[in-house]
Specification:
The structure holds 2 protein chains of 2 kinds. By secondary structure, chain A is α/β, with parallel strands linked by helices. In chain A, 23% of the residues lie in helices and 19% in strands. In chain A, strands 2-1-5-10-11-12-13-14 form an 8-stranded mixed β-sheet, with helices on both faces. In chain B, helix 2 crosses helix 3 (64-73) and helix 3 runs parallel beside helix 4 (86-93). In chain B, strand 7 and strand 8 (177-182) form a beta hairpin. Classes of the chains: A alpha/beta, B alpha/beta. At the A-B interface, helix 3, strand 9, helix 4 and helix 5 of A face strand 4, helix 5, strand 5, helix 6 and strand 8 of B.
Chain lengths: 256, 323
């Protein structure tokens, strides 16, 4: 039997799901994080507690939510409260993981989802804005960024710093008043899995995706990556992961 | 307190918490029937240049009937607290927005909002001030607490703060840097709920979003409700009331008042019409055609439901998922 065929979205979802341990709280936003959380619940993390920003806590993600406020975000959940409760839960250190995306990311994991271009107003391109992203990036312990990997997105400096990563480097988050020991933890991209080097807080290559070379990752990154001597390789989605993803997580093929 | 950084964004609504207290002192506590049409509610309480807020988010429990009426009446130069999707998209597409305290305006899974891009990139929206979702809700919370600001740990170190009107100060107790979020008092709040009585006592099922905070931060509050219930029902289960009547100025009966969005436990969202809007809003002509069909060309919410189709609405009800 050959390797099962899969698309890049399915790969992102599977690798993101693998980053989520059981029995943790995870702040889930629209799109891939919802699928990843659902897949994780059905694979290795049945007690994962998804937290949705408008109040849904602990949903059983039997059916895929299509919006962060819809009923599936608290289907058979343990609580349905409101946005203040959720944001304040994160603020007092109760949310372990957060998921983030963006139009641009820099070497320190800072994200832009506000504007493209040098001027704030009127901007060249107006994007949706922070939404809850800034709160997630500020308040959750460990943030996982999911993003397509190319030079337009992986840039030396973001046009607008919407959501804090490590800002300008070691100690910068704490200097700005953000909670200590929090920040970006992993970057799940279409080409690789990355983390942030302890001493410099710069993005570091951990493992390449199936069929991707280290050179390709470097060539598609608009800044200098930390590349260790040994770079791992991510396992492709297993037949079981793909089956659950396609048959149980998103049978309507809303996202995949 | 030592101010370390001040956001460049102007306060788009003057901050006077004592004035808000005086306003609330004068607001009637009398139990009077506030049930009225959306036409009357909007014409009486929404005005050109007012600062408007809406609740909830995405396609969920948005006050669509009320917003369509605001668009129909062409209330213009609006200042908006922008944490929304379908309803704010309509106001932007209709060219009624002058300044924006924005957190997120986009179409979630359907992508970015063409209406937002057009209105902001052209400079038609004159001022844009940035906030996080937590930030803007805490602004309502500060107003509801009757204090001029509250300290939070979001937005620090970012351009989101730099282009907001928040400030960074040194905490007088610990010396840590904290972000001060200024109170936001709305001239008019629009909230769609599951049930309300004629006086305005209102209930919401499922998540309550930021209805609690926003209702208490509004000088005028228009409630639209899927169902009008007897006050005896309210008094029997007072624990279920999220908005007490004295906060409310008008009650509008609007079944399917969140359409084309959904209402938890009552009806699903109308995927087809939502996609229709996403497509239509890509061009000026498409936008105008949509607005004409569903807003300008219909007299009121009753007629809107006819245009959408009663059978179609019934099918959205039938599709609702269980608990």
């Amino acid at each position: 039997m050959g390797e099962p065929a899969y698309n890049s979205t399915e790969l992102l979802i599977c690798i993101a799901a693998r980053q989520m341990p059981d029995s943790v709280t995870a702040f889930i936003g629209t799109g891939i994080p919802m699928l990843a959380a659902s897949l994780a619940q059905k694979m290795h993390a049945p007690n994962l507690v998804p937290v949705f920003e408008f109040g849904g806590t602990g949903a059983q993600l039997k059916k895929l939510p299509r919006a962060v406020g819809e009923s599936r975000t608290f289907y058979r959940g343990v609580a349905a409260s409101g946005i203040c409760d959720i944001m304040e839960t994160a603020a007092r250190g109760f949310v372990d993981y957060g998921f983030l995306g963006g139009a641009q990311i820099d070497p320190y994991g800072n994200l832009n989802s506000t504007i493209i271009g040098p001027q704030h107003h009127p901007p060249k391109v107006r994007l949706p804005g922070s939404g809850g992203a800034n709160d997630v990036g500020s308040l959750c312990w460990r943030n996982i960024i999911i993003i397509r990997h190319d030079k337009r997105r992986f840039v030396p400096q973001v046009d607008f710093l919407t959501t804090p990563g490590y800002l300008t480097g070691p100690g910068a988050r704490e200097d700005a008043g953000l909670p200590p020991d929090s920040g970006p933890y992993r970057v799940v991209s279409t080409l690789a899995l990355l983390d942030f080097e302890q001493d410099t807080k710069r993005m570091r290559l951990l493992a390449t995706n199936p069929g991707v070379t280290v050179k390709q990752v470097i060539e598609n990154t608009g800044f200098e990556l930390v590349v260790p001597d040994r770079v791992g390789q991510n396992e492709p989605p297993s037949a079981e992961e793909l089956r659950i993803l396609r048959e149980e997580v998103d049978p309507e093929r809303f996202y995949i | 307190m030592n101010v370390i950084e001040s956001g460049l964004g102007e306060l788009t609504q003057p901050l006077d918490i004592d004035e808000f207290r005086r306003w609330n002192r004068e607001k009637s506590r009398v139990l009077v029937d506030k049930l009225m049409t959306e036409e009357e509610a909007v014409s009486r309480f929404v005005y050109d240049g007012c600062y408007l807020g809406t609740e909830l988010y995405g396609t969920v429990r948005c006050p669509m009937t009320l917003v369509r009426e605001v668009v129909r009446q062409g209330k213009k130069d609006l200042r908006l607290a922008g944490q929304g999707v379908t309803e704010l998209d309509l106001l932007l597409a209709a060219g009624l927005v002058k300044t924006l305290d924005i957190t997120y305006i986009g179409l979630e899974v359907f992508g970015t909002s063409r209406a937002l891009r057009q209105a902001v990139e052209s400079g038609q929206v004159e001022k844009v001030v940035e906030w996080s979702n937590g930030g803007i809700t805490w602004r309502f919370k500060a107003a509801s607490m009757g204090v001029p600001f509250i300290p939070v740990r979001s937005m620090l170190g970012t351009d989101t703060l730099r282009y907001s009107s928040a400030k960074v100060v040194e905490c007088p107790f610990t010396g840590q840097k904290v972000c001060l979020i200024p109170a936001l008092v709305l001239d008019v709040g629009l909230i769609h709920v599951h049930q309300a009585d004629r006086y305005g006592n209102a209930r919401i099922e499922g998540i309550s979003g930021f209805a609690f905070e926003m209702s208490r931060a509004s000088k005028r509050l228009i409630i639209s409700a899927e169902e009008i219930v007897d006050t005896e029902e309210i008094r029997r289960y007072p624990d279920r009331t999220i908005i007490p009547y004295y906060l409310v100025d008008a009650v509008v009966h609007a079944p399917f008042g969140s359409h084309p969005g959904e209402m938890v436990y009552l009806y699903e969202r109308d995927e087809e019409q939502l996609r229709g809007w996403v497509e239509a809003s890509q061009t000026v002509e498409g936008t105008q055609a949509y607005l004409h069909k569903y807003v300008y060309g219909v007299a009121d919410h009753e007629q809107y439901m006819d245009v959408v189709g009663r059978d179609r609405l019934a099918s959205l009800k039938a599709a609702v998922e269980g608990r």
